[in-house]
Amino acid sequence: MTDPIADYLTRVRNAISANHRVVEVPASKIKKEITKILFEKGYILNYMFQADPEGPGEVIKIALKYDLGSKKPAIQALKRISRPGLRRYVGYKDLPRVLNGLGIAIVSTSRGLMTNKEAADLKIGGEVLCYVY
């Protein structure tokens, strides 16, 4: 696997399209941070880090969030922006606005992973990993 972040986003995207309640993803530090951001911003219900029963690593169990009435998922789209073949770096003045401020961009900065709004407040640029809306 050459792009673990794209694999993470694809697993979540596929689970949403199949209307699954829980999705399991192999864990890494960056995936854990992305999961924490999605939870803080209200895109997922809950998450849990667990030892992998089949292997030596850890897995992240993510409880996906759906609207009670319409059964629509909270995450409408997950788009990978920066990829191994073409990295996307931006300064704090050029941070993207996702869906005119309704979505978030997850940015990898020198102070860790954060949303585009938090990075703009701290006046830090970085690598734009993905868009979530």
Characterise the protein shown here.
This protein has 133 residues and is α+β, with helices and mostly antiparallel strands. The protein is 25% helix and 32% strand. The strands form two sheets. Strands 4, 5, 6, 7 and 8 form a five-stranded antiparallel sheet that branches. Strands 1-3-2 form a three-stranded antiparallel sheet, with helices on one face. It is globular. The two termini are 26 Å apart.
What brief labels describe this structure?
133 residues, alpha+beta, five-stranded antiparallel beta sheet, 32% strand
Short description:
This protein has 133 residues and is an alpha+beta fold. Helices cover 25% and strands 32% of the residues. It has helices at residues 4-17, 29-40, 116-122; strands spanning 22-26, 44-51, 58-64, 78-80, 89-90, 104-109, 112-115, 126-132.
Q: Overall mean pLDDT score?
A: 96
| Series of H and E elements | HEHEEEEEEHE
Note the main sheet: 5 strands, antiparallel
Helicity range: 10-25%
Low-confidence stretches: none
Globular, elongated, flat, extended or rod-shaped: what is the shape?
A: globular
Helix vs. strand class: alpha+beta
Number of strands: 8
Count of helical regions: 3
Q: Beta-sheet strand percentage? A: 25-35%
Terminal CA distance? 26 Å
| C-alpha-based Rg, rounded | 15 Å
